[in-house]
Each structure stands twice: as structure tokens, then as C-alpha cells.
């Protein structure tokens, strides 16, 4: 029998008083939805991911700020006879304005052929759950021409 005709098929049966009747066969509707256990599992997963996002956003925002500082220093000093002392002073001034505290050894200024390479490298950690930590590594560099 064709599948589209199965749901309209007639079947014979007995009514409440024992009389024969013909009933239209209707398939049961399938239940759609999520169980309580499924809901709790999904809520737990979304909670864990959401908690990680809450912990990571401040570290990411700090990374964006550091990238902006490096880009601004490059734009300010590029092609103007910059020296390592002037570059470090400009970076420290911007760190003070932005409220960034970073150890001096994380900012490296190396002389290259036609200028200087400024590189910031550091790791930021945030406690997540129990013995699990979230680690973000930042490594950004810009070249400043003399």
C-alpha cells in the first residue's frame, strides 16, 4: 500500500456495546520536545561555556588594548628617527593611560635592518573550575622604521 494511503486506511473493530464499527486508523502523533534530563545536560553545557566566556572576555579585551597600543606607537613613531628609549617611553605612557600593568621584560625592542621590531609576549591565566585553568597567550609585534 502506498505510504500516503496508510493513514487513511479503515480497520474493523468493536465499539463499546460490542457492535461492529469501522474506525479510521490514525497514527499516533510523535511526541516532540526535550526531556528533563536532556534539558539539564544542555543547561550544564551552556553554563560551562558561558562561564568560560565570562572568564575569557577581560583577557581578550586586554589583548585588543595591547594591540591598539602597539599600532598607535608604530603610527606615531614610524619614519621619525625613533630610538629604543623613545619607543619604550611611548609604550609606557600609553600603558599608564590604559591602566595596563605588564612586566618590562615582556616588551622587547630589537634593532632590525631599517628600524626596530617591537614585540609584546605574555601569558594570562584565569582560574576556571577546580584544577582547570584557562590560558591565553599574546604575541604581537610591529616594525617601526627609523
Mind explaining what this structure looks like?
This protein is of the alpha+beta class and 146 residues long. 42% of the residues lie in helices and 31% in strands. It is built from three helices and five strands. It has helices at 3-6, 36-77, 84-98, and strands at 10-14, 20-24, 107-112, 115-129, 132-145. It has a three-stranded antiparallel beta sheet, covered by helices on one side. Strands 1-2 form a two-stranded antiparallel sheet. It starts with a helix and ends with a strand. The model has no long low-confidence stretch (mean pLDDT 84).
The mean pLDDT is 84
List low-pLDDT spans.
Answer: none
N-to-C order of helices and strands: HEEHHEEE
Distance, first to last CA: 85 Å
Q: In order across it, which strands form the biggest sheet?
A: 3-4-5
Give the overall silhouette.
elongated
Summarize the structure.
This protein has 146 residues and is α+β, with helices and mostly antiparallel strands.
How are the secondary structure elements laid out?
Layout (H helix, E strand, L loop, with lengths): L2 H4 L3 E5 L5 E5 L11 H42 L6 H15 L8 E6 L2 E15 L2 E14 L1
Key descriptive features of the protein:
146 residues; alpha+beta; two-stranded antiparallel ribbon; 3 helices; 5 strands; 42% helix
Amino acid at each position: 500500500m502506498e505510504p500516503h494511503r496508510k493513514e487513511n486506511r479503515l480497520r474493523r473493530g468493536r465499539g463499546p456495546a460490542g457492535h461492529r464499527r469501522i474506525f479510521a486508523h490514525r497514527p499516533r502523533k510523535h511526541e516532540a520536545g526535550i526531556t528533563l534530563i536532556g534539558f539539564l545536560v544542555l543547561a550544564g553545557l551552556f553554563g560551562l561555556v558561558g562561564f568560560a566566556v565570562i572568564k575569557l572576555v577581560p583577557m581578550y579585551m586586554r589583548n585588543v588594548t595591547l594591540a591598539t597600543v602597539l599600532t598607535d606607537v608604530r603610527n606615531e613613531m614610524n619614519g621619525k628617527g625613533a630610538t629604543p628609549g623613545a619607543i619604550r617611553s611611548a609604550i609606557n605612557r600609553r600603558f599608564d593611560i590604559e591602566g595596563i600593568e605588564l612586566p618590562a621584560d615582556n616588551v622587547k625592542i630589537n634593532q632590525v635592518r631599517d628600524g626596530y621590531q617591537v614585540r609584546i609576549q605574555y601569558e594570562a591565566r584565569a582560574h576556571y573550575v577546580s584544577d582547570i585553568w584557562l590560558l591565553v597567550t599574546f604575541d604581537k609585534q610591529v616594525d617601526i622604521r627609523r
